[in-house]
């Protein structure tokens, strides 16, 4: 049963990969960024909403959630029907997923849009598929690390779905919304292309799927028919 569940979930992962690849193949990353910036750069780069609230605030919110997950191990705060072992696993898997995208970024030669010459920087546009090809900029921009600050919490869906299916659906919806919001903010600032956000979300979903528990416990009894 666990193997069959894993196959189904990997099927979902592969299905989700198709629109990501389709966007990459479209070549629309750069044209989309041109709608947001120009030779003077990106007007939203230092705006209080995108820079302070969504960029810095989003990162702070991610750490608050991690702290809550850590406290949750000691005393049930989220997913109260989960055992301590399950809550600990949720925390550790989340931290592991957080680490995946930074590892990919460390080996990436792709620079951020705001580093391109046409946006006031000194780099040339080079597709992230051209691995190891320098673009004249600082690199280390692919995939989106900031989108990962939200997408890493896909692990909550897998942690909660067995005992708290309704809570799991709400957690997943909130994670998707936050990922889209933080990703859009970084695009507006010139920090990432849409493909960077999509790949970060997909990598986090893949990592969360691979590390998810396969034996699903029964939902918690609520007393309702």
TrEMBL record:
Residues 90-211 form the Phosphatidic acid phosphatase type 2/haloperoxidase domain. The chain crosses the membrane at residues 60-78, 90-117, 137-159, 197-216. Coiled coil: none annotated. It holds the Pfam family PAP2. Keywords: Membrane, Transmembrane, Transmembrane helix. SUPFAM superfamilies: Acid phosphatase/Vanadium-dependent haloperoxidase. The keyword Iron does not apply. InterPro entries: PAP2/HPO (IPR000326), PAP2/HPO_sf (IPR036938). The keyword Lipid metabolism does not apply. This is Membrane-associated PAP2 superfamily phosphatase. It comes from Rubrivivax gelatinosus.
């Amino acid at each position: 049963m666990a193997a069959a569940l894993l196959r189904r979930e990997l099927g979902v992962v592969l299905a989700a990969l198709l629109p990501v690849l389709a966007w990459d193949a479209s070549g629309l990353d750069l044209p989309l960024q041109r709608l947001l910036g120009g030779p003077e750069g990106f007007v939203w780069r230092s705006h209080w909403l995108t820079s302070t609230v969504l960029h810095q605030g989003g990162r702070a919110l991610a750490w608050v959630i991690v702290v809550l997950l850590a406290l949750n191990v000691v005393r049930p705060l989220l997913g109260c029907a989960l055992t301590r072992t399950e809550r600990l696993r949720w925390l550790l898997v989340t931290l592991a997923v957080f680490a995946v995208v930074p590892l990919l970024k460390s080996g990436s030669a792709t620079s951020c849009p705001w580093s391109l010459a046409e946006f006031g920087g000194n780099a040339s546009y080079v597709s992230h598929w051209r691995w190891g090809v320098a673009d004249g900029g600082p690199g280390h921009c692919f995939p989106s690390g900031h989108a990962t600050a939200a997408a890493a919490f896909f692990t909550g869906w897998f942690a909660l779905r067995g005992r708290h299916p309704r809570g799991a659906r709400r957690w997943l919806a909130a994670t998707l919304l936050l990922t889209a919001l933080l990703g859009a903010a970084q695009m507006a600032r010139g920090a990432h292309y849409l493909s960077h956000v999509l790949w970060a979300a997909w990598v986090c979903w893949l990592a969360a799927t691979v590390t998810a528990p396969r034996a699903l416990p029964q939902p918690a009894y609520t007393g309702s028919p």
